[in-house]
Specification:
By secondary structure, chain A is mainly alpha-helical. Helix content of chain A is 64%, strand content 0%. Chain B starts with a strand and ends in a 9-residue tail after the last helix. Classes of the chains: A mainly alpha, B alpha/beta.
Chain lengths: 86, 267
């Protein structure tokens, strides 16, 4: 039976990788700011998605990866018409 | 550790990669029919492609001691052309009984359009009518959640579908549960940027268990890593998983799923 890594073990192993990826995101956001006036780029819905996803990272609760996926996902329409529906 | 890569487009790789796979322990590859990066000119091009998958590629793989298996279909992107889609579906039976063909795939959705859905359902009809295995591509990025739900709906609408004979691939954190809850086999694709890392795949394996889960590299003509499955093996070992559990994911599960095809044999 597999014993999951403890929180400390996860931090020990993945801290530098996490730090590196956060720095990449920070650098990407700086690059965006250098390319466009801040007021204009905030009209792009992708910026809104990025900011929402960052909020998910800081939020309480589990399944942050899944919740971030949903931020970047088109919604499913319950009543869509399948070709093979009865 | 011996392993099977259940989803890799080796026709787009050089034999350098076959050598690396063989050294790393790969004993077999399964190659779905896919979009080559451009839209083909007509059904004749698909005939040539199916010949490549069923004649040339198994010989290339055999030079490195690797068994090559394949799947046949018109991919979701080119399926937007319904007329071409129907011509290709009509061509498939000519090739289905070739010794390395596992079934119909990788069918699925790309942008979740009505035309793609029409051709998807017609592929499923062919597959269940001939009692063939099915391998499904779920869309990329923003289209994945919606498309996966639509695919599961269409599968559920076909009463002859046996979930145990269907592999739904490219699952991620927001789609894996619905796929497994539906009784389907579930593929995690270790492909940079647009899909999953080996760390996230290992997380999902830990959260959902080893039942009906497979991993693959989907190595193709884009930035991808044919060695992704051995890298996952290493990641799981580093986390303390047993060789038995790792082998379940990378060898036993693909073996069990593919063995449902009467043409499949590693012997």
């Amino acid at each position: 039976m597999h014993t999951p890594l403890s929180a400390k073990e996860v931090l020990d192993r993945y801290f530098l990788e996490t730090r590196g990826r956060i720095l990449e995101i920070a650098a990407n956001l700086d690059r965006i700011d250098r390319g466009e006036p801040v007021a204009k780029q905030q009209d792009d819905p992708r910026m809104d998605q990025i900011l929402q996803a960052l909020d998910v990272l800081r939020s309480e609760g589990a399944a942050r990866a899944e919740r971030c996926q949903m931020v970047f996902s088109l919604p499913y329409e319950e009543n869509w018409s399948a070709p093979n529906a009865e | 550790m011996r392993y099977i890569d259940p989803h890799i487009h080796v026709i787009s790789r050089t034999t350098d990669d076959y050598e690396r796979l063989a050294i790393a322990g790969c004993v077999a590859v399964s190659e779905p029919a896919f979009w080559p990066g451009y839209d083909r000119g007509g059904v004749e091009a698909f005939g040539d492609y199916f010949r490549q998958l069923t004649e040339h590629e198994p010989r290339r793989a055999a030079q490195y001691g690797i068994r090559h298996f394949c799947w046949l279909c018109i991919n979701a992107k080119e399926a937007e052309n319904v007329q071409l889609g129907r011509e290709v579906i009509a061509l498939i039976p000519e090739f289905l009984d070739r010794p390395n063909v596992l079934g119909i795939g990788e069918i699925g959705l790309n942008k979740n359009t009505p035309n793609e859905c029409t051709i998807f359902c017609e592929h499923v009809d062919l597959a269940v009518g001939r009692d063939e295995l099915v391998l499904i591509h779920t869309p990329h990025l923003e289209d994945k959640y919606k498309g996966t739900r639509m695919i599961l709906d269409m599968l559920a609408n076909e009463p002859r579908t046996d979930p145990n004979r269907v592999l739904v691939d490219h699952a991620e954190e927001h789609t894996i549960e619905a796929i497994l809850d539906g009784g389907y086999w579930c593929g995690l694709t270790l492909y940079p940027i647009t899909k999953c890392t080996r760390q996230r795949a290992a997380d999902m394996i830990e959260m959902y268990g080893t039942e009906r889960l497979l991993v693959n590299s989907a190595g193709d003509w884009g930035p991808s890593d044919p060695m992704a499955v051995p890298r996952l093996i290493l990641e799981m070992r580093r986390r303390g998983h047993s060789d038995e559990d790792i082998s379940t994911i990378v060898y036993e599960n693909p073996l069990r799923f593919f063995s449902q095809c009467k043409r499949f044999s590693l012997g």
